[in-house]
Amino acid sequence: MEPISTHKLNPLEPEEFRRQGHMIIDFLADYYKNIEKYPVRSQVEPGYLSTRLPDSAPLDPKPIETIMKDVENHILPGITHWQSPNFFAHFPAGASIAGFMGEMISTGFNVVGFNWVSSPAVTELESMVMDWFGKMLQLPKSFLFSGGGGGVLQGTTWTTSSTAVDPVGPLCNVAKRYNMWVHIDATYAGGALICPEFRHFIDGIEGANSFSLNAHKWFFTNLDCCCLWVKDSNALIKSLSTNPECLRNKATESNQVVDYKDWQIQLSRRFRTMKLWLVFRSYGVVNL
Ligand SMILES: *Cc1c(COP(=O)(O)O)cnc(C)c1O
Prior knowledge:
There is one protein chain. The chain is an alpha/beta fold. The chain is built from ten helices and four strands. It has helices at 6-9, 14-34, 64-75, 97-109, 120-136, 168-177, 215-218, 233-240, 250-253, 273-287, and strands spanning 152-156, 181-185, 210-214, 226-230. A four-stranded mixed β-sheet has the order 1-2-3-4. Pyridoxal-5'-phosphate (PLP) binds next to loops.
């Protein structure tokens, strides 16, 4: 076993963090420089990795240089190159420098923003950026924070297999007659709706209950970042809220903050909006 160095006793030793971080950035910059040279689809057979890696977890620590050799020799061959300019499968999982930088900052802070008090900026940036985005999409005010506040029918704008678009207005009219929740799934190409010439695809959205798009598909935001707008957030809170003693705090009890843990199944919540914010800040609405 190697002698134990300082950074192994302090998992966040700043200078070692800097050294390894630079190394990984160099590796990724070279990867993107050469990405066209790789076959887009991985050429490996199922189970390929079990013939290359040991059966049990390594006992000894290894330096990052050794580990990166493994990444190049064993992991890279099993990667499908989604960011290759020659990739046309499934859907575009758009990434960008802004998305990467946002991901790095978010990962770097490593905060868990389950409720407001656990890191106020996580909640407030999310509310604000979702409002910006909603305004660009011309969503009705009832979907936005700054504007207030039986069965399920799902309409899809740009289905993933054929990019077909359901007529949103007429669907909502039918659903209303039967008191159904309407979710409009614009996950694939919904980012395009910020262009005024495409906005008509969701005419009638004011009749829907919820709307979603994936910023990680056609909006430059590295995986994963799904944006969901809901008219009646109480419907989520009534179904998903948890209030254990250990999470009680004054801010929550004041009813002046949002605790996004109550809108989702899991408790933990990472700082995803950082990426989306960097995309907006780095490119600006004009370029987007
Ligand atoms: C990609 C896609 C989904 C799945 O979205 P996830 O965020 O991966 O769960 C759902 N619906 C449509 C139309 C999609 O394109």
